[in-house]
């Protein structure tokens, strides 16, 4: 991958001037490259990773991973079905994958019931959906390559006999 993209992927707050120093390019050429990456859809979005457990937001959400087995549609394959599924506002991420299941969804809802209702009333009744398996996320340790909170190691007491 390009040096500029690698730097921005690690930290989107790095300025074009700083990137220019790191890569040995001019700030102007870095700015032009970034604009082109944005225009071409290579850079899709700049994102902040938030540790929601520490934010303790009143409106905290429940997240679930849902494995979905689907029957692909003739002439359009998995893409058409995946597009219909990822269009739901509850779907945060949607991946085509190999293995037992075809799609992996990351779902967000206000509580367990809203996620459950999404599966029961929107996802499962879809004509091409064959099987779903829902896994609720209990705790996140690492997201997008960043450790969210380092745990304090509890020291065990020495036991002697």
What can you see in these coordinates?
By secondary structure, the chain is an alpha+beta fold. It folds into 2 domains: 3-39; 57-139, Lrp/AsnC effector binding domain/regulation of amino acid metabolism (RAM) domain (Alpha-Beta Plaits, 2-Layer Sandwich), CATH 3.30.70.920. Helix content is 34%, strand content 21%. The chain is built from 6 helices and 6 strands; from the N terminus they run ααααβαββαβββ. The strands form 2 sheets. A 4-stranded antiparallel beta sheet has the order 2-3-1-4. Strand 5 and strand 6 (146-147) form a beta hairpin. Helix 2 crosses helix 3. The termini are far apart. The model has no long low-confidence stretch (mean pLDDT 87).
CATH architecture level-2 label of the largest domain: 2-Layer Sandwich
- Number of structural domains: 2
What's the name of the CATH homologous superfamily of the largest domain? Lrp/AsnC effector binding domain/regulation of amino acid metabolism (RAM) domain
CATH class call of the largest domain:
Alpha Beta
Residue share in β-strands:
15-25%
State the helicity in percent bands. Answer: 25-40%
Count of extended strands: 6
Regions with pLDDT < 50 over 5+ consecutive residues?
Answer: none
Multimeric organization:
single chain
Give the overall form.
flat
- The spatial strand order of the largest sheet comes to 2-3-1-4
**Whole-number mean pLDDT:** 87
Q: Quote the CATH topology of the largest domain.
A: Alpha-Beta Plaits
Order of helix and strand elements from N to C terminus:
HHHHEHEEHEEE
Radius of gyration: 21 Å
Work out the helix count.
6
Distance between the termini: 58 Å
Instruction: Label the structural class.
Output: alpha+beta
Biggest sheet features: 4 strands, antiparallel
């Amino acid at each position: 991958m390009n040096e500029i993209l690698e730097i921005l992927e690690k930290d989107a707050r790095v300025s074009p001037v700083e990137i220019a120093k790191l890569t040995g390019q001019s700030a102007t050429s870095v700015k032009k490259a970034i604009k082109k990456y944005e225009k071409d859809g290579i850079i899709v979005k700049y994102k902040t990773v938030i540790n929601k457990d520490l934010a303790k937001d009143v409106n905290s959400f429940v997240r679930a991973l849902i494995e979905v087995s689907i029957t692909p549609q003739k002439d359009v394959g998995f893409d058409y079905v995946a597009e219909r599924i990822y269009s739901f506002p509850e779907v945060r991420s949607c991946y085509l994958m190999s293995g037992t299941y075809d799609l992996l969804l990351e779902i967000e809802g206000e509580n367990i019931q809203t996620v459950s209702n999404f599966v029961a009333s929107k996802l499962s009744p879809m004509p091409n959906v064959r099987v779903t398996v829902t896994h609720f996320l209990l705790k996140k340790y690492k997201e997008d390559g960043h450790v969210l909170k380092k745990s304090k190691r509890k020291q065990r007491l020495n036991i002697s006999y």
